[in-house]
Amino acid sequence: MLDKEKQQLLKEFADQSDKLFNLKIIRTDSFTGEIGEFVASNQFGLKKTDRVTRAVDGIDSKGNKYQIKAKVIENEKLNNGIGKLDIDEIDFLVIVYFDLIYRPKKIISIKSNQLPKGKVGISNKFLNSIKYDTIEENEIKIPISQRNEILKFGRLYESLRKFGIIRSRRIVGDLGEFYACQQLNLILNENKNEKGVDAYDKNGIKYEIKTRRVYESGRRTGKSRRLNNLVGKDSKFLIIVTLDRSFNCSGMWLMPMKNVVNPKSAHLQIVNTTPGVKKIIKSKIAWLD
């Protein structure tokens, strides 16, 4: 589906991703958030919590609890929408801002008593109305070897974007949409406000595309991958795409959305059991065959 040059670039990206994993900089494919947590934890001396602990990402030596957010910015506007902020569970909200190659530009730390409950929009205007601490680029402490590996990763990320392989920081989702649209001759939905509709066909029929990166490694040891939030969607069909370690398509299925069992948190293995499912690309994964 991709030419050799782009496949090689994806392989280099996968190799560098594994290197960040081995350096304990990232734990999942949520790259921006994971690198942000690494930078903040290093800066504030935090012990990371388990991934299932949603509200609290790290705890300092005094027992203070931190929620960490991260955002890539192209200018000085510090805009960041944060939903479901549980200020009763945390003492500090920390936001790490990166440039396009994951060079940390600024960290802000806000005490929970300065924050409203629920959804909060972080902006320059909001920040001017509260008290918070700022750590500038030259004050951010990252070991040079790890900083260099993060920057190498960031440069590869930018290369993927410039080649048109991805269009956002959601590389797994972007690639799944790219492969599905190419394989099924679909039109990518450019309306980001239309939730649950990723593509259309020539007749206007709507499709949602879910993508998971599945391969055997220290990062993925089980078969419990889930497809969440398929409830109340307008799409007529669901497309499921799997990616291998090098982000190449390793399987693709098409099924009627109405036939999905447990749409709130469906198991990836619905590709084996859903009535009306069609195998578009034969799976390279034994348990998804």
Keywords:
PvuII Endonuclease, Chain A, six-stranded mixed β-sheet, alpha+beta, 2 domains, 26% helix, 289 residues
Describe it.
- The structure is a single chain.
- With 289 residues, the chain is of the alpha+beta class.
- The chain folds into 2 domains: 147 residues, PVUII Endonuclease, subunit A (PvuII Endonuclease, Chain A), CATH 3.40.210.10; 119 residues, PvuII Endonuclease, Chain A.
- Helices cover 26% and strands 27% of the residues.
- Strands 1-2-3-5-6-8 form a 6-stranded mixed sheet. A 6-stranded mixed sheet has the order 9-10-11-13-14-16, with helices on one face.
- The protein is globular, with a radius of gyration of 20 Å.
- The chain starts with a helix and ends in an 8-residue tail after the last strand.
- The model has no long low-confidence stretch (mean pLDDT 89).
Q: Would you summarize the structure shown here?
A:
The protein has 289 residues and is α+β, with helices and mostly antiparallel strands. Helix content is 26%, strand content 27%. The protein folds into two domains: 147 residues, PVUII Endonuclease, subunit A (PvuII Endonuclease, Chain A, 3-Layer(aba) Sandwich), CATH 3.40.210; 119 residues, PVUII Endonuclease, subunit A (PvuII Endonuclease, Chain A).
